[in-house]
Amino acid sequence: MSTHHTQHSHLDVDEAWIAEWAAEGIAAIERYLAKHAAFAEYLETRAVVHSDDGDRRPDA
Length: 60
Prior knowledge:
mainly alpha
């Protein structure tokens, strides 16, 4: 029978680093969502402009 040894290691992580890392991640997600919101607004504005020209959207 073989013996199996498991070695546990402990990693010290600075809590300030974790807070900074999380803040950067949240900021990146907010930028991503803002880009998608701006594009959705662009599409909606474009659809309204085209519907004023008599070219209605199929769902309007």
